UniProtKB/TrEMBL annotation:
Cofactor: heme
Keyword Iron appears in the UniProt entry: yes
Family listed: Belongs to the cytochrome P450 family.
Protein name: Cytochrome P450 CYP12A2
Residues involved in heme binding: C433
InterPro entries the record matches: CYP11_CYP27_families, Cyt_P450, Cyt_P450_CS, Cyt_P450_E_grp-I, Cyt_P450_sf
Length: 485
């Protein structure tokens, strides 16, 4: 039943079927589809990703009814239908979800009702105003390149730190994902806040603000899944998970404020800098203090686990594919300024291990999609994780083949044969990831140094991934061997 191509079914008005007729799990009176998601239900303890199961069973468009405060969702697995819908959407797109964070900001954090909540969760004019101010500071490659030296310094420190934690078997004695989170926080810190947070200090205690922040961010993504991306009763009664979530969100804001205040104090004591030496916080502070603090909060939430997860995935793929690792090392050691193979490796890691499962939007008007009428205010999920693994989009889809991103168009692997909407790891359009340039620079810098320093091996079977989080994680054990080059 899997969708074969990218056809948008253009039916005549009267042939369009209503949303209720979209295929989906059997719906029973009163409880709807809930029983499938409860213990014993076929979607509860699923062997594969929910979106893959839905796609396999129901085809290119799937209906999931809402329940227990969880809104209905339409899953779309046809890239052409998806892009057509996205293009017709409002110029100020709505990305739903995060209701529990919005609730927290409103009732437990804000001093004034009209304070912005941030790029991740705001919509409409409030979001547009924030985004317009931040885009030039964060999305221009030449602006982000100004941070290349300091990023390189952070990566050097990270390599030193990793070396100091290797045992006689050349395996890491600490948790690599925690280590990568510290590196990602340090990297985002230098760009966003303008100073070293010292996350890579060899004597960093477990109760340091940096370690507490990365644990909090990680826990937030777990709890977000339970509160906002699965049916949950928190909107009706005070559940233990809700209480835990509110505590976590407050702790996150407290830690953010600690780092932001520290950065502002440091800025006050420094001499006047050139524009090119200023951090994002500094540049935004010159425009509006509220915006600067709100956006820094965003960066400290969205810019840590995401880069760390992608880097972990790429390290694993390189360790498991030694010939690709050697090819990358050759390119890095050649000291050529352009590094197409490195960029291709990152793209391929994001294809095989995307941080987010897909693109999420809420419709602001009715749409006709694949023969059905999708109502206004409907949550739409485009299953990019499944699209990326479709044979008709990417031949040999489960293999790590960075070459597909650089071969010419006569090669059957050529990436341009895939629909452009099938690989969108940083999202789509005006609402796409604002940290993309920072993430690319930090990952490129660190991975280059890793392959220069270490020959990575992986022992045993591939790692498992978790499906119970708002973002995808690779699970322990991380069986890397870090041999010297
Ligand atoms: C490899 C790393 C990363 C990946 C794969 C990633 C992916 C994404 C995706 C898919 C979105 C949603 C886009 C959409 O709805 O169209 C997003 C949004 C966002 N990301 Fe990232 N991200 C990464 C790193 C970062 C970093 C390092 C930062 C901060 C420095 C960051 C900050 C944000 C923010 C603030 C948003 C919300 C943007 C908005 O709605 O205006 N991300 N990211």
């Amino acid at each position: 039943m899997v969708s074969k191509g990218c056809t948008v079914v253009k039916e005549a008005e009267d042939q369009l079927k209503p949303w209720r007729k979209i295929p989906g799990p059997l719906s029973l009176p009163i409880i709807g589809q809930l029983l499938h998601f409860l213990p014993g239900g076929w979607l509860y303890n699923r062997p594969i990703e929910l979106q893959e199961l839905l796609h396999k069973h129901y085809g290119p468009i799937v209906r999931i009814d809402g329940n227990l405060g969880f809104p209905p969702i339409t899953f779309i697995f046809d890239p052409e239908a998806a892009i057509t819908l996205f293009r017709k959407e409002d110029p100020l797109p709505v990305r739903p979800g995060f209701d529990s964070i919005i609730y927290h900001r409103k009732h437990f954090y804000h001093k004034h009702e009209d304070d912005p909540n941030g790029l991740i969760i705001d919509h409409g004019e409030v979001w547009r105003k924030l985004r317009t101010m931040v885009n030039p500071v964060m999305l221009q490659t030449k602006t982000i390149k100004l941070y290349a030296n300091v990023m390189a310094e952070v990566s050097d420190d990270m390599i030193t730190r990793l070396r100091s934690k290797l045992n006689k078997q050349k395996m890491l004695e600490t948790n690599l994902f925690t280590e990568l989170n510290l590196w990602a926080l340090e990297s985002v810190g230098v760009v966003a806040l303008g100073g070293r947070l010292n996350c890579l200090d060899p004597n960093l205690p477990d109760d340091s603000p940096a370690k507490k922040l990365i644990v909090t961010v990680h826990d937030i993504f777990k709890i977000l899944h339970e509160l906002d991306f699965t049916p949950s009763l928190w909107k009706y009664i005070t559940t233990p998970t809700y209480k835990k979530g509110i505590k976590l969100y407050s702790e996150h804001m407290r830690l953010n404020e600690f780092f932001i205040d520290k950065a502002i104090q440091q800025l006050k004591s420094k001499e006047e800098k050139n524009d090119k030496d200023k951090s994002i916080l500094e540049k935004l502070l010159e425009m509006d203090r509220n915006v600067a603090v709100t956006v820094s909060n965003d960066l400290l939430l969205a810019g840590v686990d995401t880069s760390a997860s992608t880097t972990l995935a790429l390290l694993y793929l390189l360790a498991a594919n030694p010939e690709k690792q050697n090819k990358l090392r050759e390119e890095v050691l050649s000291d050529e300024e352009k590094r197409p193979y490195l960029k291709a490796c990152i793209k391929e890691a994001l294809r095989l291990y995307p941080v987010l499962g897909g693109n999420f939007r809420q419709t602001t008007k009715e749409h006709d999609v694949l023969g059905y009428r999708i109502p206004k205010n409907m949550n739409i999920f485009i299953g990019n994780q499944s699209l990326c693994l479709m044979e008709e989009q990417f031949p040999k889809p489960t293999e790590f083949i960075p070459e597909r991103w650089i071969v010419d168009k006569n090669d059957p692997l050529y990436y341009g044969n895939a629909h452009p909407f099938s690989h969108t790891p940083f999202g789509f359009g005006v609402r796409s990831c604002i940290g993309r340039r920072i993430a690319e620079l930090e990952i490129e810098t660190f991975i280059s140094k890793m392959v220069k320093n270490f020959k990575l091996d992986w022992i045993g079977s591939p790692p498992k991934r978790t499906r119970i989080c708002a973002i995808n994680y690779i699970l322990e054990p991380y069986n890397f061997v870090f041999n010297d080059v």
